[in-house]
Each structure stands twice: as C-alpha cells, then as structure tokens.
Amino acid sequence: MAYELAPLPYDYAALEPFIDTETMKIHHDKHHQAYVNNLNAALANHPELAAKSVDDLLRDLASVPEEIRTTVRNNGGGHANHTAFWPLMGKVGSAGVGGAPSGPIAAQITTDFGDFEAFKKTFNETTAKQFGSGWGWLVFQAGKLKVISTPNQDSPLSQGIYPILLNDIWEHAYYLKYQNRRPDYLAAWWNVVNWNEVNRRFDLAKG
Ligand code: MN
What we know:
Layout: H1 21-42, H2 47-50, H3 54-59, H4 66-85, H5 103-113, H6 116-129, E1 134-141, E2 144-151, E3 163-168, H7 175-178, H8 182-189, H9 195-206
Helix pairs in contact: 1-4, 6-8
Manganese (II) ion (MN) is lined by residues 27, 31, 82, 168, 170, 172-173.
C-alpha cells in the first residue's frame, strides 16, 4: 500500500505568530506531499519494501536496492521526519505546549544539561551551525540525552537511534517569516513545542 500524507493535527494557523499559516500550508501540503509522492514512485516496483513502515525502511537502508537507495533515503527521510515533526508542535496556548518542559523529560533534561535554558542553548547552537539544510535532534543514547544535527533528510533511525524531538532547519520551514534569520526561528520555535508528545516519544526511546 502506498504511503499517505496525514492531515496536520491542528489548523494551519495554530502555530501563529511563531510559525505563519502560509509556511505551514506550503510546508505540509507541498513539501511533505512531494516526499510522499517521490517515495511512492521510487517503490512502485518494490511492493516488499513499500509494505514496510517508513521508519523500518530507514532503519534498514541496506535492504533497499542501490539504484533507488538515495531516493529512498531522501524522500523516505522527508516523509518520516515530517510525520514525527508535526505532532511535536501544538496549538499555541494549549496545555503542555510551549513554556518549560513537564513530566519525565523535564527531569532528564535537568540531569543531562543542568537546566532547560542550558538545553535550549545547546540545541539552538548545534542546530544553527548545521550547514545548509537539515535537522536538529534530541536523542536518548546509552541512558543520556544528547543533541545532534544531520544534513538533508537523514534520520537518526538509520543509525539505530529513535529520536525524541526534532526541528526542521530547511529554509522552507522558516524563510517566509524569518528569511535568513535562522536563530530567530530557532528561538521562537520553543513556543510551539508540544511537551506531551516529547514525553510520549521519550518513553518509546527508553524502550
Ligand atoms: Mn521540512
């Protein structure tokens, strides 16, 4: 069965004023849809691969024939990353959205980074430095939280790591509102982070 684009779990305007409506429409309806379409096209003649979840595809790129591996890595990554990304944000003002983290992730952040401000600084600096397009990630590895970044649509799933939190630093995620000011976008983005979803993913990451 072909991969499908799920609707956003909130209105296009839900992240205003931090992420604008137009950006959300283009980002979800055009960019994410294109990754889904390209992935389906690449796997049209590979039903055994298309039967896997997109996360499982990325966990085992070696099983993908070499002639379509880069296409699957890029577009499967694009599909998986955005699918994880949308629910990690939430309507401004809802319970658990923006502000300081709550629940188990809050305690783990304090343990591993000292406090929330220090964690945000590490995340924003690491992510701001990623050259060109890519993603910033919070991962849990060997019992410890860690911030990493990847280029393009590369997913930590391909390194055997289940990501907890991610932020899209492709220009398509912020250019209409923030233009070249990636650090301003990164700073504003914390206002829309959905800590309920972060805690749900932290639980899965702990296995
Ligand atoms: Mn994107």
